Known about the structure:
With 208 residues, the chain is of the alpha+beta class. The protein has helices spanning 8-15, 32-35, 54-69, 73-85, 90-99, 102-108, 115-123, 159-162, 199-206, and strands at residues 127-129, 132-133, 146-149, 173-176, 181-184. A 5-stranded antiparallel sheet has the order 2-1-3-5-4, with helices on one face. Strand 4 (173-176) and strand 5 (181-184) form a beta hairpin. Helix 4 crosses helix 5, helix 5 (90-99) packs across helix 9 (199-206) and helix 6 packs across helix 7. The radius of gyration is 18 Å and the shape is globular.
Amino acid sequence: MARRIEPDCRQCRREGCKLFLKGERCTTKKCAMERRPVIPGQHGNSKRKVTFTEYGAQLREKQKIKRIYGLLENQMRSYYEEAERMRGVTGENMLSLIERRLDNVVYRMGIAASRKQARQLVNHGLITVNGKRVDIASFIVKAGDEISIKESKLEKQPVKSVRGLKVVMPKWLEFNTESLKGKILALPTREDIDADLQERLVIEHYSR
Length: 208
């Protein structure tokens, strides 16, 4: 199954909120949600309020999470199934697993401006975990794992531009922008995930 090729800004407009798919652009006035905050298509300017059935709301929330993290349907379902087997709240477990994807960690540490760019860095072999190159974006990190940029890639862009930046990141991560090395301090909890998500709807969708 191929990834979505729909333009990033169109995806944000479809969901009715910023998904932060284009990095810094999403925080400027160039953002499509700032210029044209209506759903794409011929009915985008309709004054009618869009309402969803229970199933529609569940599907919409699932699509939103998939778009934010760049997931395929089989990946999303796999995270749900694994989360269901874990102790604790299934929805929170699912989001924790998704947050621990290597491409998301690279993005959260500020090494990349977007998750899409982070996925490219991982796929191209620029990232190491515990000293070993990992080129699988869906790799799940564990508490204590050390994340760094491969030494032979330190002078490449966009890695080079990260050095010395001030980065705000979740408390479960640390990353030194001088040494370009970081660490997974703990597993992420629901409080660490700042996106406006209703994971309960996704669990209801998959457990139908």
